[in-house]
Design brief:
alpha/beta; Arc Repressor Mutant, subunit A; D-Maltodextrin-Binding Protein, domain 2; 3 domains; five-stranded mixed β-sheet; four-stranded mixed β-sheet
Length: about 300
């Protein structure tokens, strides 16, 4: 006899507290349900139900078995749903959040290509540099840079994020090229005011030890694109991710310095609320971004 049918029959009887109610939920006859429960008890060698003319109640063994049986049924139902969703075409509205610079430079150009692949998906893209609570604000997925802060989110690495200290060739010709992080103390630097330690840039020594340096300059900004423009105009040295300045480094408009001292420990991640299975639209979007950006992002490739 079908062991799954036996378990389902027992759970439905326990939930409805009657064989008749279980039969209606299962679309079976009352006698068939009774036979399934009896077969289960016989196979287990234990009485699961107290049967009287007035009521059905669970035995101690039945109470313990019910908890586990419910989990088994839930897992099977979820497995069925997961397979069904895998076969379904991605569709519906997808709310996406991303930081300003990366969103404008790389995510916005990628989205039309994704939508061409999945014509039944609608995108609502929100770009900002503030912390966004995906669950409270109703986002399906976000692109984030750095460590995952909330245990309620799942992260998938999309690409490494390489950081560089860079300046225009004209600035370096006029002020000299710093050879160690401490040399930055005599240079004009362009701090990012979105970072908590505004005037501290963190490096590593050849021995792998932290090497923080206090920097100063006439201009700070809360946006990497603004700092890039300032560096291009010769106002000083900027500490930026290569996804902002990669094209400038390739063209020679900016030059990288102190490469051996910059820690490369950041990643670009897709994050989404924890769920026991992903919707097709979120899975398709995250897979698309992983193919598009990683593991060797195009903005770091030397032509």
């Amino acid at each position: 006899m079908d062991r799954f049918a036996e378990v389902e029959a027992f759970v439905r009887v326990a939930e409805t507290e009657s064989f008749s109610g279980a039969a209606r939920r299962m679309g079976a006859s009352k006698s068939a349900v009774s036979r399934l429960v009896s077969a289960l008890e016989s196979r287990l060698g234990a009485r699961l139900l107290h049967r009287t003319t007035r009521a059905l109640t669970l035995t101690e063994a039945g109470k313990g078995y019910l908890e586990r049986a419910r989990r088994i049924l839930a897992d099977i139902e979820e497995a069925d749903q997961c397979v069904g969703e895998l076969q379904a075409a991605p569709r519906g509205r997808l709310r996406v959040n991303a930081p300003m610079s990366f969103g404008f430079l790389h995510l916005a150009p990628a989205i039309p290509d994704f939508m061409a692949l999945y014509p039944e998906v609608e995108i609502d893209l929100s770009m900002n540099d503030r912390f966004v609570d995906l669950i409270d604000e109703g986002f399906d997925v976000a692109v984030r840079i750095g460590a995952l802060m909330s245990s309620s989110l799942i992260a998938r690495k999309l690409a490494p994020v390489r950081r560089v200290v860079c300046a225009s060739p004209a600035y370096l010709a006029a002020r000299g090229t710093p050879q160690t992080p401490d040399a930055l103390k005599s240079h004009d630097c362009l701090p990012n005011s979105n970072i908590a330690l505004l005037h501290e840039w963190r490096f590593i020594s050849p021995e792998g030890k932290p090497w923080p340096v206090e920097v100063k300059g006439r201009l700070s900004a809360n946006n990497g694109d603004a700092l890039r423009i300032a560096a291009l105009k010769g106002l000083g040295l900027a500490f930026l991710p290569s996804f902002i300045v990669g094209a400038d480094l390739q063209s020679g408009s900016l030059a990288s310095v102190l490469e051996d001292y910059v820690p490369q420990d950041m990643t670009l991640n897709a994050v989404y609320p924890h769920a026991r299975h992903l919707s097709p639209k979120v899975r398709a979007f995250v897979d698309f971004l992983a193919r598009r950006f990683g593991p060797r992002p195009y903005w770091d490739l030397v032509e």
